[in-house]
């Protein structure tokens, strides 16, 4: 992957034993006066306590949860400010660096389509359930308008993008949650898409790679219907798993609530991006309940790795080759020539 | 019995206590007040209807949280002939917010697992307000798998506002454990019947809320989040909980319409706390009925049907719901 900047000082064991140098960030637009309208997800924005020695830029202004506009849509010369270090970044360079801040290495939010482009050799070769779109099962006040705004803003029909393609020559099914679509939260349509991803992959006998970024987890405006998606997606993963197929779950910033407490946790292998917020209950609710400040680094990828809840933290710029390695570990010798990944049977 | 009184039922409760006083007085003094008492009782009956027949969603949430509402252990002792509690997750500790064990229901051995609230502050502190940690869900999974091994049906009693939001719970993998619990109950090779007896909020409730039959008490609520939580996140104002309760469609009737539950069990007028015995007897009958419905189904078929039902029937339910509304 040429043209990418690599982190210069990665330590042993994903820096587990060194001071974490990544922080979770909420990039914001420099030239935008109106706040973004992506609200509606279950966990509101949180100012992450700055890690010692890390310039965060968060002290002066509140972070805004808005992913950067996809590079291809940005006119030349637009600059953005990194929400973590406060440095001004050239958008084109940032996109080329896979939305990892080239000053502080913070992993910023990346649009779902860019993620697919980055990981798959020829992008998504087939999108599954492309027509599936959100409904408003409870007729929740203001929800339809929010859905429409999110669709307009992201160009997506829903917060999940699923399909198949090739990763380093290996056929895979890929799912990506897009944080910019109502925080990547899961309502009926997202749940149905995730289930569909696992069902189709089971039929096609493809491994599944799934990137979760479901800020608030279950989508509140769909009430108990969104809660049920935790059951349906979990069951789809379980059936897929019973077929002996491989599921790699990658937790990206943020993976919380009902998304974390269902399909995202149930991978055969759990990876996370540096600094990603990962947890069940949102930090604000915990602080209100226990009436104390949370320790720095609470509910980060580093925190869940230390507590034994994930397998490894992987830098975004090494994600593709890591996934390819893992996929090849799961190929039987006879299959290696065919470039087909299945479960070890 | 605990008689916490809500503002909106105060006129009724005052009238009821006046009737009781008059009855006591007439007995004590041997004075015949039956005329007055009959008139007052007629008025009370009317008032009871007015008070409880058209409850708002928020009033129902309040009833579901009534301190006198029967807890899991109350239902167990009222419904079952014998019960032995079994403790611990075999990995970390025994979580007092979740109780479980083996007992006899209508002569039949079953495993019962439920979230356990306390009655007063002391009990609630001991039970952590019925809010489980990951080890509680691990205990639930352990007992469920044990039941499957011995072909015992599993009954879960759900009354929980959510999983415990705390530092240690997160450290020990609250989210991941809930996912595993949902998976365990989804695939469990034995009948699973869930009864939502009070509150059923978030993944913390769903972790023991997936099964072949979902029963729901009349005044219980079931949603992705508590009304207060919804209001404070969406509208930055927890005081709008009543509006959120309405918007979330969390009542038993709404959940039935959405296809999320299979049966709503009538409660004594005003709530199970007004007559726990009757409530327990209704629940017991429904459980026995559901168990006999599931009898004789081979476990492979049972699990298959369970999975299909979550996917097909329920999604049909809410699609129908939104198409009825012209969406
Ligand atoms: Zn930066």
- Total number of helical segments of chain B? 14
Classified by CATH, the class of the largest domain in chain B is: Alpha Beta
**Spans of at least 5 consecutive residues with low confidence of chain A:** 1-74
User: What's the mean pLDDT score of chain A?
Assistant: 79
CATH topology of the domain at 110-332 in chain A: 2-enoyl-CoA Hydratase, Chain A, domain 1
Report on the structure:
The complex is a heterodimer of chains A (345) and B (327). Chain A is globular, with a radius of gyration of 19 Å. With 345 residues, chain A is α/β, with parallel strands linked by helices. In chain A, strands 3-4-5-6-7-8-9 form a seven-stranded mixed sheet, with helices on both faces. In chain A, strands 1-2 form a two-stranded antiparallel sheet. In chain A, 54% of the residues are buried. In chain A, helix 4 packs parallel to helix 5 (223-242). The longest helix of chain A is centred in the C-terminal third of the chain and has 20 residues, at 223-242. Chain A has a domain at 110-332: 2-enoyl-CoA Hydratase, Chain A, domain 1 (Alpha-Beta Complex). Chain A has helices at residues 91-96, 112-119, 143-154, 188-204, 223-242, 257-260, 283-290, 301-306, 319-329, 333-336; strands at residues 79-81, 88-90, 126-127, 160-167, 170-177, 208-212, 247-251, 269-272, 312-313. Chain B is α/β, with parallel strands linked by helices and 327 residues long. Chain B has two domains: 7-54; 61-325, 2-enoyl-CoA Hydratase, Chain A, domain 1 (Alpha-Beta Complex), CATH 3.90.226. Chain B has 14 helices and eight strands. In chain B, strands 1, 2, 3, 4, 5, 6, 7 and 8 form an eight-stranded mixed sheet that branches. Classes of the chains: A alpha/beta (345), B alpha/beta (327). At the A-B interface, helix 4, helix 5, helix 6 and helix 7 of A face helix 7, helix 8, helix 9, helix 10 and helix 14 of B. Zinc ion (ZN) is lined by residues 82, 84-85, 87, 101, 103-104, 106 of chain A.
